[in-house]
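Retry 2 of 3 after timeout on previous attempt. Resubmitting structure tokens to design endpoint.
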């Protein structure tokens, strides 16, 4: 950890607060090695016996909250509550009680270790809350510029009262798209920590219904999502009700690839190698280790540059050329759904059920192709 603070919850129930700069290794749910830095551990009863090892000894929990400070060739142990057993290398084990501290140098000498303050879980929670609150206030002020952008067709910035009222206002100042109608979805915490500032689409019928009129040459689709798992063959982000000529579909495959298409033709000859559309896939970007993390996903359809570009957290995932035979210069949306498919054409669950197992708290749709610099800028402004 180069700088800052991190909370790490182990499967044993132990919670660690690490202060950077720090170098450490989690060997198991019951053992951590600290080579440098400050680490505070809160140990519940089922995890008694948890240990932290340093170069000059190890601390074994006996029912406590304790911290270690490893720096400048010495290790200090501070017991904040309860007791531990301190086992210095080459020395006798000793019990250390709450309010006491011991230390040892890498030469094996005992050193004075005056009691110190260490950041705890409650303090870290308050710091994170205040930081996110400040970032949210800054983003809401900055986002007003995007609301007034003439290229913006649809802008949903979910507020706690919106989900309860089952309507999400379209904040695009010049956009003709409708407000969003919330169906079945439930409120959930957003990326800023607000308890009801996002929409959870896990219930199978969940969606936000929307109408986007007009004809558009280019598109940029952008959203902040938290994915729990990719349970479906297709996991929807934004799909038109049907799949008619000129209509886009944006979703995630079950193997973690982004999927984007614009339908080119309704009539085609498979024997001649024709297809109704060309699908622009990204490489797989989502794996289970990203479960529960907020991500900014974006896709740009740019007929002028003859390319489709996928983005993750402001960085290019992939760019693919638009084949001339699949170029669509008039894109239509009409009735559509966020995070589900409005009117599936087939009665096969694997094909038809497309609700996203996760949450969304912000969605932008531009009737233009944003540049890579603009996508990166939105990410930097809007990340918590």
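Retry 2 succeeded. Sequence:
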């Amino acid at each position: 950890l180069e700088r800052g603070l991190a909370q790490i919850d182990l499967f044993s129930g132990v919670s660690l607060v690490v202060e950077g700069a720090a170098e450490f290794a989690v060997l198991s749910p019951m053992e951590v090695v600290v080579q440098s830095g400050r680490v505070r551990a809160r140990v519940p009863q089922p995890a008694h016996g948890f240990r932290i090892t340093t170069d000059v000894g190890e601390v074994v929990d006996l029912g406590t909250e304790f911290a270690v400070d490893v720096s400048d060739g010495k290790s200090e142990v501070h017991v904040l509550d309860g007791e531990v057993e301190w086992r210095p290398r080459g020395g006798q084990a000793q019990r250390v009680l709450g309010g006491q501290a011991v230390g040892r140098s890498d030469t094996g000498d005992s050193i004075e270790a005056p009691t110190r303050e260490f950041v705890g879980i409650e303090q870290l929670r308050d710091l994170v809350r205040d930081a996110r609150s400040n970032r949210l206030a800054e983003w809401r002020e900055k986002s007003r510029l995007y609301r007034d952008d003439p290229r913006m067709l649809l802008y949903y910035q979910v507020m706690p009262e919106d989900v309860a009222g089952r309507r999400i206002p379209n904040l695009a100042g010049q956009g003709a798209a409708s407000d969003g109608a919330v169906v079945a979805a439930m409120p959930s915490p957003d990326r800023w920590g607000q308890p009801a500032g996002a929409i959870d689409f896990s219930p199978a019928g969940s969606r936000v219904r929307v109408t986007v009129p007009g004809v558009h040459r280019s598109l940029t689709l952008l959203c902040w999502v938290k994915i729990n798992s990719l349970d479906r063959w297709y996991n929807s982000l934004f799909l038109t009700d049907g799949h008619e000529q000129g209509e886009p579909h944006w979703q995630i495959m079950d193997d973690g690839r982004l999927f984007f298409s614009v339908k080119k033709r309704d009539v085609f000859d498979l024997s001649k190698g024709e297809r109704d559309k060309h699908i622009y896939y990204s490489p797989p970007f989502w794996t289970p280790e990203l479960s529960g993390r907020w991500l900014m996903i974006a896709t740009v359809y740019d007929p002028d540059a003859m390319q489709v570009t996928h983005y993750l957290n402001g960085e290019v995932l992939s760019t693919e050329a638009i084949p001339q035979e699949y170029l669509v210069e008039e894109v239509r949306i009409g009735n559509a759904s966020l995070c589900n498919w409005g009117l599936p054409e087939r009665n096969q669950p694997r094909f038809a059920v497309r609700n996203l197992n996760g949450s969304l708290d912000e969605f932008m749709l531009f009737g233009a192709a944003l540049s890579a610099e603009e996508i990166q800028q939105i990410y930097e402004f809007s990340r918590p």
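Attempt log closed. The two ends are 19 Å apart (CA to CA).
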